[in-house]
Amino acid sequence: MSEKLVIKNIGLMLSGKIEQPIYDADTIIAVDGKITDWGREKNLDCDSATTTVDAKGITLAPGLIDSHVHPVVGDYTPRQQQLHWIDSTLHGGVTTMISAGEVHMPGRPNDPIGTVAMAIAAQRWYDNFRPSGVKVHAGAPLLQTGLEEHHFKQMAEGGVRLIGEVGLGTVKDGKTAHEMVGWARKYGMQSTIHTGGPSIPGSGLIDADMVLETGTDVVGHINGGHSALPDDQIICLCENCKAALEIVHNGNERAALLTLNTARELDKLDQVILGTDGPAGSGVQPLGILRMIAMLSSLGNVPAEIAFCMGNGNTSRQRKLDTGLIETGMCADFVLMDQAQHAPGKSILESVQLGNLPGIGMTVIDGRITSQRSRNTPPATRLPEIV
Ligand SMILES: [Zn+2]
């Protein structure tokens, strides 16, 4: 029998689409984990649901996507010796994470065959095991000296779809990186690059020239992780890149706002995507994506409904995912949230525009409820109920 999820009494539906961020709808339906319909309840077939949720007038958005994480294995990170950081992040509304490299693996291999083996293994262990239901796209090898085209072919055939941050491996020059990124792209793998100064002892500077020469699909942490490039180089990247412009929580906030303002002037807000860059030296940020949305909306004067798109729909499109947008056939991955108790503002959107986080009441992944009232956000004013 198929599973049918009906969520009704939605007060505000955010679509993830920057060109139309708000839908006129109070109900959404998913069958077997995929979105099939949404609109006004009276016009929809809500019969024979296996799960019905009364949203109690709160907001539904596509689940948030963290475009930049550094997982290692399961729901444990050796970087700050923390357990359950992914479960905590689900309580911050994130339903999908994308690895920028499993860099914190103790004893990580840097030789070609070891790199291939670990990339395939990491892709598998997160494909086979979703911590608390969260989708972790991992297996993101670093570019290492000695990798040849056949290694990329082998990794792609093994299921690897990503390249970790260029510059964190032993390949440090733009020419070699460009060649390897080309092989990766040929076999369907998406690439990102470390932009800015060194993040920790042992990593190095990547300037705008190297980012442009390498030509990755994502300009990873354009606002630095942590140290940002000089302003003129950030502006140059915004002007010249057709790639995704990724802003991270663990970066320079002033550079984040410079990126946002430059992208807006260039009419490139659809290229702006969000990540945390955790776990890292700054720890993990369970609420990192929500904090970025509130920060960019409030200090960058972006309507909250547009800022939310940077945390779901923009990333979905830039990274060609099957989640992050309210669209027929997309995965039914949702976050249900409301204005936080006692947060100023006349609505959830206004309270976010004033720099406040919303309170999360529920998450849904593939049409199944994965968490209820968040233990990490400020408490939501109203909570959805399973009927
Ligand atoms: Zn980095």
What does this structure look like?
The protein is α/β, with parallel strands linked by helices. It folds into two domains: 4-62 and 325-386, Urease, subunit C, domain 1 (Roll), CATH 2.30.40.10; 64-286, Metal-dependent hydrolases (TIM Barrel, Alpha-Beta Barrel). 27% of the residues lie in helices and 23% in strands. The chain has eleven helices and 21 strands. It has helices at residues 85-90, 112-128, 149-157, 174-186, 208-214, 231-240, 253-265, 288-299, 304-310, 313-318, 348-353, and strands at 4-8, 12-14, 22-23, 27-31, 34-39, 51-54, 59-62, 64-69, 76-77, 82-83, 94-99, 135-137, 162-166, 190-194, 218-220, 244-248, 272-275, 334-338, 359-365, 368-371, 385-386. The chain has a six-stranded mixed sheet, covered by helices on one side. The chain is globular, with a radius of gyration of 20 Å. The two termini are 20 Å apart. The model has no long low-confidence stretch (mean pLDDT 97). The structure holds zinc ion (ZN). Zinc ion (ZN) binds next to loops.
Key terms:
387 residues, alpha/beta, Urease, subunit C, domain 1, TIM Barrel, 2 domains, six-stranded mixed sheet, five-stranded mixed sheet, 27% helix, binds zinc ion
